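As a point of orientation, let us examine one representative protein, giving the amino acid sequence and backbone structure tokens.
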Amino acid sequence: MAARTGDSILDHQILSQPDELQRLLTDPTVRAQVHAAAEGLHRVRRIWVVGTGSSQHAASLGAALFQDAGRSAHSVSSMQFVRNAPIVGPHDGVLIITHTAETAYALAARSLAFQAGLQTVVVTRRGVGMNDVIETVEKEASETYTVSYTAALLVLGLLAAEMGADSATREQWEAVPDAVRRAIADSGTQAVPVPRRALVITGAGPSAITAHEGALKAREAARVLAEGFDAEYLLHGNAVPLGVDDHLVALVTPDEDGFVEVLAGTAQAAGLSVTRVAEPSGLHPIAAQIPLTVRLQLLAARLAAQRGQNPDTVITGAWNDPRLWSLGAPTAAR
């Protein structure tokens, strides 16, 4: 079944991803920026990967990629890095992910790292005019961010490959755009209903991070109650209140020991409706998260259309108070 092409900006951003990811793979400016970042980070002892919201999800997967390259890497939220800073030494490096280059605590993290004289790299949108940056795509017009997220994952993968990742090689990332095209053509999420109460998404390993990202997209775009869980964490108490009014999406790739599948079967026995979503591309488990994420983006866009929600304007009402969004920013950025 082909993906629905809607009229929202979100729909167009989702469908733009194969071409944008292909562009990043061939853009000489991006290649030079990735190479410069790899040279800088080669010299550091540890890498702190920092982000907020979707960018924190990318940071978690990015840290795993750098570990694949044999580096000591840790992900942390922007606020935690600024307000409860880990013990960072002079030989550490900081990589900050921000879709807009406007997020208050992400900017504060960059300022803090720069003032400390640490090797700093920022993965962000095009045209920001910063030093030590890897630029991905134009600033998204929809507040449900999609292409900037998958683009950030791709350049993190290219960076890890340049730093010597054993299995997440450049060849793996070059196969991503076609895998995304296949995900758009058939998302595997078409049968997921609008939940009567809650949409729960679960996965194992890197797919647990994608579960969180998918739930965030559903909340933003469709304004449904959605939660993402690591499969083991869901089992250990969080599944207790779930029942017939809830729907479970089980991300069954990867699932080496069958835990997610058994969990899905148990959920059905408990009265939940369940959809299993697989990523058949055969890519490296982290590279596979890009097309798997796109499948959940399409689900969020469809649920938004079915519920009559505007997925492009997410932060409204009292939540749009500028004071709230500027808290934590470095003084010069306020």
User: Anything to note?
Assistant: Residues 9-182 form a domain with the Rossmann fold fold (CATH 3.40.50.10490). Residues 318 and 324 are 10 Å apart (CA to CA).
